[in-house]
Design goal:
heterodimer; A: alpha+beta; Aldehyde Oxidoreductase, domain 4; Aldehyde Oxidoreductase, domain 3; 3 domains; seven-stranded mixed beta sheet; five-stranded mixed beta sheet; B: alpha+beta; DNA polymerase, domain 1; 2 domains; 5 strands; 16% strand
Chain lengths: 793, 166
């Protein structure tokens, strides 16, 4: 029996409705339980001594004075930890040529970035551990540093890791069609250099782990702020030499992740190793400086790009040369080649053209490692693509919306394969653009802009179409050898009182996973969502799954939940048919009641069925199946990824005297397939947009030439605040994926993917009459004034 | 590190309407005192240098950064945290509006946000959206993009002024 999603009046119609989040009430009362809130008996705290040099040999560690600090229990060096924990190498087989040296939880003889752990101090309180760490005397012999991206491969640049031979971590060239010929015969060619700044995620809850080794049970339990509990289980087991089945990762409330908490961090693994050595619970919570120097960074790219267009605006070719510097190591186990790889995969994404060349060059340097952060590679690829398209339109004297309409894949063209070899099942670029135009009153806004320009007010309108990669299959990581599950599972059970418990392998990071799962299970079985208790984030309890990343929770975890709920519904009806002596097909479950499917008349409440099954099973026919627990797993198989699409618009004002940008309004129309909870989707889009706006206007990690991180505090690394942010209008087109019954695709990254490009194009739209253009993010007042020629030094 | 750092001091204060006596390290900030000594984990340590607002609590009627105030400075003070404000239903309408508007995602900033919003609303009247945005700018949220928070605060302000339903 299928669900008539098109009929809003269908019974149990919770999918597609805004229902309350079961966990929100707890969080507004301060009753969240984040890792730092957990206190265990005999718990101790660890603080790390971190390298103040970007590159240095460790020649000696003197911990003599440390024991004088009351509360300090032990000191660990890299060598101590290496005795119980093996190093890792973050490469994947499908990223051909990717190389990275072995990385240890605590540096053994050489530190490679400012902030790398070089020793650990364990004490009865965090304060005592920090006091102890301050007294550790480490002798360093500074080594030459590699800090500039574009000269990393030059012959006279030192090689960061001798064993690697050179500073090249990864390079990939993709070529389709005849790019050179297309550029030769083009009506116009536009070339631009783009830069995106090094960002970090700035989760308000710092990275946190509380690891507890119980030698009597032979079990390691890690309370961990993570997005991927099963992945962490595997990693801790493998590197600490504990059977996988004896590692339990529990992920309760997580205070923001955005990709930051999906990676393996040396200090967190060291914490688990120390717990194993000391046989007692050890807690590590990063402080804010540690967050800035050791949370993964991202988006440090420089790109030379060009586009070829015909007189009618048709795009004939794009040519992208992307460079990124990933820091000292590729990050385990997802690797740091993915972001550059995504730039190659995603540039030109919305457009139907033939000739495409893109290369990414990924180099090592003595800085904090970079890795996957929300919308991995998308903001870069979208900025390149949409920046080029806008500049081409300006060259041709064409409206930026018109040039996009002439080049976007037709809405009836699917399935298609892009020049980057991405396969699209079904997108809606034109419908989305049409909806955006109506929502923002594009023509009216253009008229207002022209009118204000006469008064010397410089406003700009920026458009950015985009695609977003969601619902990843094993093609993302599994085929490369990583034990990262693309499949996810859900177990749904009915208890005697007729209530349901759903256990899912995807996790809650605040995006509303538990609400989404509760409404899917509620509709799938036929109860109200408040009758569903959702349990996530415990590897010993939930089905094995991938967790939260690449916008997979709703599309993959949600489908597993729907299938298991439908299976449970069948099981319940099998019992109900026997009890009511009717055919199963004549029965349905609605609002917690077994009903007559034709008339809707109540036949029996679920709690009565529960009472009979659990306590009076003797009254049921012998051999009658009575399994009120069902588990299903789901994995995508028709397409490597479920692409979504959308288009954003930014309306802003540039003060040409100060260079300050004021965001006036922002729009996003996106197509994430079936919408399960409209409010939660809109809020994912809004939150994502603001993270993108941060990258466009404020966020930039600064290093000096010696590899010192210069702005490691929230006062110095700017993130968006409420006062600077605009209201955002969000609209939707729904093109459900046919891969699943649910039809949901992801929505977590669309906002971040498109917002920086929309802002860039809007600023350049405002500046164009003054002959100025900016392509280096973030667009600070200084950069804008330089573009305007006001600042010249 | 000096000997003085390890010195402790006796303080007496009121926390969430209950009298508290404690001997605290002189260098311990209020957030750590509330969290570690009293088990009040609603206020969160995030930046610990006064920027993000996740540790905001109410001290003698004003919103205060718990990370910038030492516990000894709270001697004699009246402190309210999200736990106490919940128990007394002082911010019930705000909490309900935050849930209704989904003005929180991960929830880590939320207790601080609520204290900051309570302060704005205690001034009466219906602030403009920009005034709400300015007032809430001392509290970072990395999840929501702020609009839902502004919506929630605005809704409560209007309801309290009798101009709309919360």
């Amino acid at each position: 029996m299928t669900i008539e999603f098109g009929n809003p009046d269908r019974p149990n119609s919770y999918i597609g409705k805004t229902v309350p989040r079961p966990n929100a009430g707890r969080l507004v009362q301060g009753r969240g339980r984040y890792v730092d809130d957990i206190v265990l008996p005999r718990m101790v705290h660890v603080a790390f001594v971190r390298s103040p040099f970007a590159h240095a040999r460790i020649t000696g560690i003197d911990a003599g004075e440390v024991k004088s600090v009351k509360g300090v229990l032990r000191v660990f060096t890299g060598k101590d930890i290496a005795e119980v924990c093996t190093p890792w190498v973050a490469v994947l087989a499908h990223l051909k040529g990717l190389k990275s040296p072995p990385e240890y939880p605590i540096a053994v003889d050489r530190a490679c970035w400012v902030g790398e752990p070089v020793a650990a101090v364990v004490a009865t309180s965090r304060a005592a551990a920090e006091d102890g760490a301050a007294l550790i005397d480490v002798d360093y012999d500074p080594l030459p540093v590699v800090t500039d991206m574009m000269s990393a491969l030059d012959a006279d640049t030192p090689v960061l890791h001798e064993d690697m031979g050179d500073n090249l971590a990864f390079r990939r060239l993709h070529e389709a069609g005849d790019v050179e010929a297309a550029f030769k015969s083009a009506h116009k060619v536009v070339s631009t250099r783009f830069r995106t700044a090094r960002h970090t995620g700035v989760t308000l809850e710092p990275r946190s782990i509380l690891a507890d080794w119980n030698p009597a049970e032979g079990q390691l339990t890690a309370y961990h702020a993570t997005q991927a509990p099963h992945m962490i289980q595997t990693v801790l087991a493998e590197h600490l030499g504990v059977p996988e089945g004896r590692v339990r990762v529990i992920c309760g409330d997580v205070g923001g992740s955005y990709g930051i908490k999906v990676h393996v961090y040396p200090d967190e693994v060291a914490t688990a190793a120390i717990a194993k050595i000391m046989a007692r619970p050890v807690k590590f919570v990063a402080d804010r400086l540690e967050s800035f120097t050791t949370d993964i960074h991202a988006r440090d790219h420089e790109i030379e790009a060009r586009i070829a267009v015909e007189e009618d605006g048709s795009i004939t070719a794009m040519d992208i040369d992307d460079w990124t510097a990933i820091g000292a190591y590729s990050v385990y186990p997802r690797t740091s080649a993915i972001e550059g790889n995504q730039v190659v995969n995603l540039c030109g994404g919305p457009y139907d053209f033939k000739n495409y060349r893109a290369q990414t060059t990924v180099v090592f340097q003595n800085k904090t490692p970079t890795c996957q952060y929300r919308a991995v590679g998308h903001p870069i690829a979208v900025a390149i693509t949409e920046g080029l398209v806008d500049q081409a339109a300006a060259e041709l004297g064409m409206d930026p919306v018109e040039i996009r309409r002439r080049n976007m894949f037709r809405d009836d063209a699917y399935p298609v394969t892009s020049p980057a070899n991405m396969r699209f099942e079904g997108l809606s670029h034109h419908a989305s653009m049409d909806k955006l135009m109506a929502l923002m009153d594009y023509d009216g806004l253009r008229a207002e802009q022209a009118e204000l320009r006469k008064a010397g007010i410089h406003r700009g309108i920026g458009i950015a179409s985009f695609i977003e990669l969601t619902n990843p299959s094993p093609f993302m990581y599994g085929i490369g050898g990583a034990r990262i599950s693309a499949q996810d599972g859900c177990t749904v059970r009915m208890d005697p009182d007729g209530s349901l418990v759903a256990l899912s392998g995807v996790t809650e990071q605040g995006q509303g996973t538990e609400a989404m799962l509760s409404q899917i299970v509620a509709e799938g079985v036929g109860v109200s969502p408040d009758k569903v208790r959702v349990i996530t984030g415990d590897t010993q309890v939930t089905p094995y799954g991938g967790g939260t990343w690449a916008s997979r929770g709703a599309g993959i975890g949600g489908e597993a939940a729907l299938q298991s709920a439908r299976a449970l519904r069948e099981s319940i009806l099998t019992v109900a048919a026997a009890m009511l002596q009717t055919e199963q097909s004549r029965l349905d479950i609605r609002d917690g009641q077994v009903v007559d499917a034709a008339t809707g008349d109540n036949r029996m409440p679920l709690e009565e069925l529960g009472r009979i099954v659990y306590f009076r099973g003797d009254t049921l026919p012998k051999g009658l199946p009575r399994e009120l627990v069902q588990t299903r797993h789901f994995i995508t198989s028709d397409y490597p990824f479920a692409f979504t699409n959308g288009v954003q618009a930014s309306y802003l004002e540039v003060d040409i005297e100060t260079g300050v940008v004021k965001l006036l309004k922002h729009w996003c129309v996106e197509d994430c397939g079936r919408i399960i909870n409209p409010q939660l989707v809109d809020e994912q889009i809004r939150g994502g947009i603001v993270q993108g706006l941060g990258g466009a206007l404020f966020e930039e990690i600064h290093y000096d030439a010696d590899g010192q991180l210069l702005n490691g505090s929230m006062a110095d690394y700017l993130v968006p605040m409420a006062a600077e942010m605009p209201d955002m209008v969000v609209g939707h087109v729904e093109t459900p994926t046919k891969e699943s019954m649910l039809g949901a695709k992801g929505a977590g990254e669309a906002g971040t993917a498109g917002a920086p490009a929309a802002v860039m194009n809007a600023i350049n739209d405002a500046l164009r009459p003054r002959g100025a253009q900016v392509t280096e993010m973030p667009f600070t007042p200084e950069r804008i004034l330089r573009a305007l020629g006001v600042l010249k030094d | 590190m000096s000997e003085a750092f390890r010195d402790r001091i006796d303080i007496t204060l009121t926390v969430n309407g209950e009298s508290v006596e404690a001997r605290v390290p002189v260098g311990q900030h209020l957030t750590d005192f509330l969290r570690l000594e009293l088990g009040l984990t609603g206020a969160h340590a995030s930046c610990e240098h006064g920027v993000c607002g996740a540790c905001t609590v109410q001290v003698d009627g004003a919103p205060i950064r718990g990370c910038l105030m030492l516990a000894p400075q709270a001697d004699g003070a009246e402190v309210w945290t999200v736990e106490g404000l919940t128990d007394t239903a002082a911010i019930k309408d705000l909490q309900e509006a935050f849930v209704a508007k989904n003005a929180l995602q991960c929830g880590f900033c939320t207790p601080g946000m609520l204290v900051a919003a309570k302060d704005l609303l205690s001034r009466g009247g219906v602030p403009s959206r920009q005034e709400i945005r300015e007032h809430m700018s001392g509290n970072y949220c990395r999840c929501t993009g702020y609009e839902a928070i502004v919506d929630a605060v605005e809704t409560v302000a209007q309801a309290r002024a009798g101009k709309g339903a919360a």
